[in-house]
Amino acid sequence: MTSLPEGFVAHSGGPCPVAPDTMVTVVFRDGQVVERERAKFWSGPGEDWWRWQSHNHDNDIIAYKVENP
Q1: Which residues, other chains included, contact 4 with Cβ-Cβ below 8 Å and sequence gap of 6+?
Q2: What is the DSSP string of 2-63?
Q3: Cα three-residue angle 25-5-20, rounded to 5 degrees
Q4: How far apart are CA 64 and CA 50, in angstroms?
Q5: Average pLDDT for 29-42
Q6: pTM for the model
């Protein structure tokens, strides 16, 4: 993984690391950044971006930053 933007925490797959209603900005494996969504937005039946699908899936979350409310 390349260096992360300041304030981001690396995520290597697995359960969501914060409470479901926490506002987060996430970085996907393909470099896309999505700002200020509730953590639970990225977890759902069938697809869970917190839990990696594989090590080459573009939509896996590789880093997150908790946002102030």
Answers
A1: 10, 27, 63
A2: -PPPTT-EE--SSS-SS-TT-EEEEEETTS-EEEEEEGGGGB-SS-BSSS-S-TT-TTSEEE
A3: 25
A4: 10
A5: 93
A6: 0.86
